[in-house]
Design brief:
There is one protein chain. Helix content is 57%, strand content 19%. The protein is α+β, with helices and mostly antiparallel strands. It folds into 2 domains: 1-41, no CATH class; 46-80, no CATH class. The protein has a two-stranded antiparallel sheet. Helix 1 crosses helix 2. The longest helix has 14 residues, at 10-23.
Length: 80
Amino acid sequence: MTVDRLVLDPRAIQRQAGLEMQIGAALASVMGTNEDLAIPLDTSEIVICGDCLLRPLAALLEDRDQATEPDRAILRDNHG
């Protein structure tokens, strides 16, 4: 599973909202700069088993970040 963390770009949102106020939402979506409203922070890849699928994603990422290399090998062997 790949998890992308994003943050909203307030200046891009302001520009898009301003354009929508001037020419309307329908035209702004077509005539706008097609600028990304979100900025990527990082990407994490995790292997997840069926049991872990029911756990909150934040807990899985925390477990992965706290695991030592031998623990990661065990996790890989048991979960994929």
